[in-house]
């Protein structure tokens, strides 16, 4: 049964960017010896299980209301059950759940959550995109920067550092088939950033029609992991729409990428350097594994020029670098090398699935019998041809037009490590490149203590966050909230501390 709303009105790492096979992989099942395209999907399922997630289906399929006369957005205010009583009514909480019927699709619906700011409705509108590709943004809602955390008894506790404390916060389950988003037609599954960014742009247009009081607020795009692909493409699409006056003007001020995959050619080359620096491999391992880098570089270049199967080849060749590192690192958690994976379990996010599968929760959200697909192996595989594409190429034009760009990374993440991110940011060619490279780094101070190292020039900021892995808002919630607030207020790059030579 498709989702229903009883009184419709017009008014969600983290990355599966993960190794192709584990340290236990043998020669007999080595995927590089196989030409089948099913292997990445099998691996995606294995990696989903490492998060203690067990979606019932590979992709969310259902039949929606095909009526073209109804509203494109169907939304309701809601209050989660099991939420401690704050004394606020549903109206006062300002929490919304909705479905958006994609116009450029056969039968696709995007599910979203919208949390009005706990501070002021005039705060910026911030949209968050979780990566994967194919993971639900509810991962961020409940484990990172959303209004709540899930306790072990499946009740909700308010997050003192939720980003809704300083922004009006939107989470979208995307691409189609992820989370509670669904379609009945496999042709609606997206394979590249054109499809993803157009869907998100269409959603924003309809969202601001339904919420015109927020249309003039400052708007920021944020996310992490594979969203390092989504975000630059989405920002460029919004900027293009504004320039060409396609619809409602969206007051785009900037975008932020956390531990993202943006420029694969630069970032894959950094794996061995980071692994050596962190003691995951020895110099002899470094010398041996680094011999694979030229083949990876060439494969990525061919993906950029030829596309198609060249991109699949690049995915296989380049991930071999990561795999060789993990064969040596063993049970290290590649999202946070301070930690170990125990057996098949690196993180336990199962409470999210259990909570969202409760009938009372589903009734509150109005999702009917739609499956919750925490991470979709089908969406993961569908985006493989997009994986090795360079999304850095569109960022300079945005910088030149004054769009603010924040690239941040937790220092203990291997999979999208700070070193690779720092290198592509420094290598990016734009009018301020020379001054950015020459700029000194300064401490990012929170509560009188250094929480990271920051480097900036003009609209560009790079921030290495201390004591954090892949999911910065989960590991350093207060620092991440401070980061967002200062950045959106134009105060992040300001410091009273004298700069010093950048180690980045």
Automatic annotation (TrEMBL):
Q: Which SUPFAM superfamilies did the record assign?
A: alpha/beta-Hydrolases (SSF53474)
Q: Which Pfam families match?
A: Peptidase_S10
- Keywords per UniProt: Carboxypeptidase, Disulfide bond, Glycoprotein, Hydrolase, Protease, Secreted, Signal
Would the keyword Signal be found if you checked this record's keyword annotation?
yes
Q: Where does the record locate the signal sequence feature?
A: 1-24
> What is the E.C. number?
3.4.16.-
Q: Which InterPro entries match?
A: AB_hydrolase_fold, Peptidase_S10, Ser_caboxypep_ser_AS
Tell me the superkingdom of the source.
Eukaryota
| GO molecular function per UniProt | serine-type carboxypeptidase activity
Family annotation (Gene3D superfamilies): alpha/beta hydrolase
- Catalytic class of the enzyme: hydrolase
The Gene Ontology biological process terms listed for this entry are: proteolysis
Please tell me one Gene Ontology term that the record gives under cellular component. Answer: vacuole
**Where does the record say this protein resides?**
Secreted
Query: Of which family is this protein a member?
Result: Belongs to the peptidase S10 family.
The role this protein plays is: Probable carboxypeptidase.
Q: What protein name is recorded for this chain?
A: Carboxypeptidase
């Amino acid at each position: 049964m498709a989702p229903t709303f009883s009184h419709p009105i017009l008014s969600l790492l983290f990355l599966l960017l993960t190794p192709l096979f584990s340290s236990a992989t043998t020669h007999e099942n080595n995927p590089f010896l196989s030409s089948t395209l099913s292997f990445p999907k099998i691996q995606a399922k294995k990696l989903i299980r490492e998060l203690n997630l067990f979606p019932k289906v590979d992709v969310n399929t259902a039949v929606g209301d095909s009526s073209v006369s109804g509203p494109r957005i169907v939304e309701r205010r809601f209050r989660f059950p099991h939420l401690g009583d704050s004394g606020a009514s549903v109206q006062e909480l300002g929490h919304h759940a909705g479905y958006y019927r994609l116009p450029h699709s056969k039968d696709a619906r995007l599910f979203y959550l919208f949390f009005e700011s706990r501070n002021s409705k005039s705060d910026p509108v911030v949209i968050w995109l979780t990566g994967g590709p194919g993971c639900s943004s509810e991962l961020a809602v409940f484990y990172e920067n959303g209004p709540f955390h899930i306790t072990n008894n499946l009740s909700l506790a308010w997050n003192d550092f939720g980003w809704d404390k300083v922004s009006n916060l939107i989470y979208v389950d995307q691409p189609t088939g992820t989370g509670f988003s669904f379609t009945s037609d496999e042709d609606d599954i997206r394979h590249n950033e054109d499809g993803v960014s157009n869907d998100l742009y269409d959603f924003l247009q309809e969202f601001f029609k339904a919420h015109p009081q927020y249309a003039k607020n400052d708007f920021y795009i944020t996310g992490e992991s594979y969203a390092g692909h989504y975000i630059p493409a989405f920002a460029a699409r919004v900027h293009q729409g504004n320039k060409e006056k396609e619809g409602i003007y969206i007051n785009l001020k900037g975008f932020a990428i956390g531990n993202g995959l943006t420029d694969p050619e630069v970032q894959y080359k950094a794996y061995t350097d980071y692994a050596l620096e962190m003691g995951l491999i020895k110099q002899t391992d470094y010398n041996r594994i680094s011999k694979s880098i030229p083949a990876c570089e060439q494969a990525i270049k061919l993906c950029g020029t030829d596309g198609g199967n060249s991109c699949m080849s690049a995915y296989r060749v380049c991930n071999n670098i990561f795999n060789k590192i993990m064969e040596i690192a063993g049970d290290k958690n590649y999202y946070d090398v301070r930690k170990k994976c125990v057996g098949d379990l690196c993180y336990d996010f199962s409470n999210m699935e259990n909570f969202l599968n409760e009938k009372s929760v589903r009734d509150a959200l109005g999702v009917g019998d739609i499956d919750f697909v925490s991470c979709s192996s089908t969406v993961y595989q569908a985006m493989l041809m997009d994986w090795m594409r360079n999304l850095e190429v569109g960022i300079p034009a945005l910088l030149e037009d004054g769009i603010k760009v924040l690239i941040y990374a937790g220092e203990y993440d291997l999979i999208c490590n700070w070193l690779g991110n720092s290198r592509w940011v420094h290598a990016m060619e734009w009018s301020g490149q020379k001054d950015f490279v020459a700029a000194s780094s300064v401490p990012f101070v929170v509560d009188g203590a250094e929480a990271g190292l920051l480097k900036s020039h003009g609209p560009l900021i790079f921030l290495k966050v201390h004591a954090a892995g892949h999911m910065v808002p989960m590991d350093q919630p207060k620092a991440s909230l401070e980061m967002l607030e200062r950045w959106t207020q134009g105060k992040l790059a300001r410091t009273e501390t004298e700069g010093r030579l950048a180690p980045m």
